[in-house]
Amino acid sequence: MSQNLKAVKGMRDLLPELAEKFRYIESTASSTAGLYGFNEIRTPILEPTALFLRSLGDTSDIVSKEMYRFTDHGGEDLVLRPEGTAGVARAFLCEGLAQHLPLKLCYQGPMFRRERPQRGRYRQFSQFGVELLGVEKPQADLEVLACGYRILKTLGVLGTVTLHLNTIGDQASRQDYREKLVSYFSERKSELSKDSLDRLEKNPLRILDSKDPSDIALLKEAPKLHASLSEDAKTFFNEVTEGLKLLGIPFEVDERLVRGLDYYCHTVFEFTTTALGAQSAILAGGRYDGLISDLGGPKTPGVGWAFGVDRLAELLPERQSELAVISLIPLGQEAEMKAVMIAEDLRGQGLRVELGYSGNLAKRMKRADKLGSQAVVILGSDELIKGLATVKNLKLGTQSEVSISSLGAHLKSLS
Ligand code: ATP
Ligand code: MG
Hints:
Layout: H1 16-35, E1 39-40, E2 46-48, H2 49-56, H3 61-66, E3 68-71, E4 77-80, H4 85-94, E5 103-112, E6 124-133, H5 138-154, E7 161-167, H6 171-186, H7 194-202, H8 213-221, H9 231-247, E8 252-253, E9 265-273, E10 281-287, H10 291-294, E11 302-308, H11 309-315, E12 325-331, H12 333-348, E13 352-355, H13 361-370, E14 375-380, H14 381-385, E15 388-393, E16 398-403, H15 407-414
Parallel strand pairs: 1-5, 7-8, 12-13, 12-14
Antiparallel strand pairs: 2-4, 3-4, 5-6, 6-11, 7-9, 9-10, 10-11, 14-15, 15-16
Adenosine-5'-triphosphate binds next to strand 6, strand 10, strand 11 and helix 11.
């Protein structure tokens, strides 16, 4: 195939089996989120570049190196959305949703980040996320966490999953911590990685997130964030952890968890799995009380998360199709057209029906078997005249003659 007809690097075709897993994950997530009162919002895939520059911060990985950014023919500076929260916040402002607080919204769809493709890391991937706006109490954090937990539980993937939780405090806590961190690292600049030197200038907290071995070694002796927490921040975090215990949701406090984006405060969290190698994060989020005001809106607290559908799909066990397959095999010229009519009638009764299109009986039986058919209905011309068909139950290996008029009821009784 010619080079330029390949899919774009890091972007995948989701063939039916995988697409079906995506559909199942997304519909399970949205019906579970519905139990918590989240309603779906759909925002555009293209957004003005300024939206992400102002919300994510220019030291974030996304803004500094991962955005698909371009100027369109009209000279507008645009980005293929790399995440969902900023778009929801923009919609909140543009659509005047501040009157409807508290507001619970969920979203799903493709996101784009130009990073190095590998298993579980793609340049186009899908997220499902929830945002709870307008509630500053820790009970909102708990509801959002419980919703994420319930979705993972319903999908049956909790086995390899751990919830990591941390607080990055309020503004006062972070201000105090930032100063301590800057003074500690300023004396050890020669040992810091190049990236972290840059972070020291622009956003020192992000050094905690570093994967560089020499940074990690320095971090062992570094001042601890929790020592800088204000009383308010401690009380808030305490309510979240106590609430999780009461809810029976297991978690680990991870003091190094800071999350990559600028808009977080207080609670930050990540559900990780041991089953996907390096791409271990499956659901991540936190509280973002400053986001809406950073975008020029009224001060509006918020808390939310997003999960990666691609990564969850890899964790999901193989799935059986929900509807049993029934295969119709017409034998002889006259039966061919009659089979189309009977198939249509059975579908009208809610059955999933496949037609054996060509080849001899053995070949058609083989195809029916390959499709995983529960039963095969053989329509022979002679039988049809008598209004009968032969039903072979492939699961039990039994066979019976059934009248065409009661075929639907008979086939339904098999499953
Ligand atoms: P990572 O540390 O793996 O890069 P992240 O912190 O960049 O993750 P978030 O921005 O928090 O990820 O996005 C939420 C979730 O979206 C992640 O936990 C992950 O499951 C998924 N995700 C993020 N980037 C990708 C990607 N490039 N391909 C597939 N899934 C992704
Ligand atoms: Mg990332």
